[in-house]
Amino acid sequence: MPKNSKVVKRELDDEVIESVKDLLSNEDSADDAFKKSELLVDDQEHKDVDVEEGSDVEDERPAWNSKLQYILAQVGFSVGLGNVWRFPYLCQKNGGGAYLVPYLILLMIIGIPLFFLELSVGQRIRRGSIGVWNYISPTLGGIGFASCVVCFFVALYYNVIIGWSLFYFSQSFQHPLPWDQCPLVKNISHTFVEPECEKSSATTYYWYREALNISNSLSESGGLNWKMTLCLLAAWILVCLAMIKGIQSSGKIMYFSSLFPYVVLICFLVRGLLLNGSMDGIRHMFTPKLEIMLEPKVWREAATQVFFALGLGFGGVIAFSSYNKRDNNCHFDAVLVSFINFFTSVLATLVVFAVLGFKANIINEKCITQNSEKILNLLKIGNLSQDMIPHHINFSSITADDYNLVYDIIQKVTEEEFPALGLKSCQIEDELNKAVQGTGLAFIAFTEAMTHFPASPFWSVMFFLMLVNLGLGSMFGTIEGIITPIVDTFKVRKEILTVICCLVAFLIGLIFVQRSGNYFVTMFDDYSATLPLLIVVILENIAISQVYGIDKFMEDLKDMLGFSPNQYYYYMWKYVSPVVLLFLLIASIVQMGLSPPGYNAWIEEKATEEFLSYPPWGMIVCISLMILAILPVPIVFIVRRCNLIDDSSGSLASVSYKRGRIIKEPANLEGDDASLIHGKIPSELPSPNFGKNIYRKQTGSPTLDTAPNGRYGIGYLMADMPDMPESDL
Q1: Which residues are annotated as a binding site?
Q2: 253 in Cβ contact with 471 (< 8 Å)
Q3: What is d(CA 402, CA 407) in angstroms, rounded to the nearest whole number?
Q4: Residue 498's domain spans which residues?
Q5: Binding site for Na(+): what residues are annotated?
Q6: Count of domains forming the chain
């Protein structure tokens, strides 16, 4: 900065300080109220560093060590378990490669614009979700509290999944893997295979009986599963240690937790492509079924996946971006993270279906072998004629094409008798069409495939360590969405709050490690987040585009970024995104109403899953989860609208961190644009006794940047006081 600019800046600051000192020296000695004013004045002579033009007087809020660390944090939060076990399922279910078209369109319409919006408000106001939405509109301050509640609900069961992954990770250090074969049961007379395992499969049995030891229904608690209780405790200890210092501790862990999953996915992809049948899986995956694209359900599920894949509404995006510098290019970050998320989903889909193609090939070979033996037996006993079998067929080493040829011939020749023969078609496509998602994919289908890998324990360790890291990355953002807003608003110590939060969450989370805990995980996953988060993001969009003003917000972005964002975002935020989100909300409510509320229970005697409806108390819990998550929005609206709480005590005052000390700003100044939480209307404000000592900018004086939350402490309070001559100042 030029030297003369520094001189002008220093003279300006000296003039400001002298003006304030003159005012304070003329105050009425009896004015005790003003003596207790929260205005603090920094004397320039005690500062060794000049503030240069164009630079921010940054507060002492923690900051990211580097841009890479911040990007990895946002990627770690947005890229989670859903990318691995939800996106591939949706892609297969909704038209294969054709599903990518609606997904990309909706990513451009609601994904990137809303992600950019959350990054922008967090970076501009530099507070967590509670502080941000209080600043935008005090009556909509409940949006931030609702985000915290949803984050807490999600954290409760999400960490249970990390606990499951830790359990499988700990059991992977043995050969053969414990879920490779069905266990044998011995009695006095003989040894036999466990009946529950024999009716299902080794991996299914291990998941439901050895890992979860699951009960037959939600109502049968069955007591705590001590193995999973210890794993849940370990998961919460990991989260607590990583988060106890905020981004100073979690930021360093991001280098491993965010990058390691990509190393594992690439290793799995290379290994998977070398496996027999992997290309069948990938070909099946990306074969487009264009007719399915016209179904509304496909677009609804694509919009839902876009919405949750980026972590919108949780508050984690806002919390992470609040630790950025105000001039950071958050538009670039929004586009970069969104497309990293998308390509990660595609990479995970390639890996999943390469491995599932290999698994389907193995199952298909077993099917061909078993049915070939049946055909030989039918030929021996004379039920089939040898003449119908082509001469080149060798049943001892029959190929899939040869078997299909024989199968078709037998089916045509013995039309009426064919069903009684009990032969199967053995098509790889039939096996690949058995869509699996969620825990069924990770802990059953994928684990079964890995048992056929050479060096299977190594791949199992890598896979479940990847799941742990994917889960932890998302958990860091989720917990940050709880901790940051509370610390910003109520000024509690982050270390103490983190420990208390993790401890309380662990104690409540014990309901998920009962024998019936898996059913509670399903309940929370279905009802605690979907509708509340949609409502939260719709209100966020309305708060910016209608309440705060889209034109004003675009000006703020221009001031912050140094350039005007494309008008595309203006129209998306003001018109398109709210309408799309509203349709998505209505569609989700309709879908929830049409789908019978229930869960898939594992019936031990049958060794199969069976759909059961929730008991009456279960329905009450489901409804309560949705109501509790969104309840802060109307409560805060009513409280602020009706002035039911007096904020004059300063308990909700905003705080600026500046040069080593805290400058408290009164929360009851409605006209102060720098105040973070507005409390009262101007007519109710207490005023000093000596005659309305309100500081006003002098005409013609240079303008200081008074960014949100008081970059310069209290700055100049703009007030129109016609009864006070300007000479009085």
Answers
A1: 76, 79, 83, 341, 470, 474
A2: no
A3: 9
A4: 72-248+293-346+454-642
A5: 76, 79, 83, 341, 470, 474
A6: 1
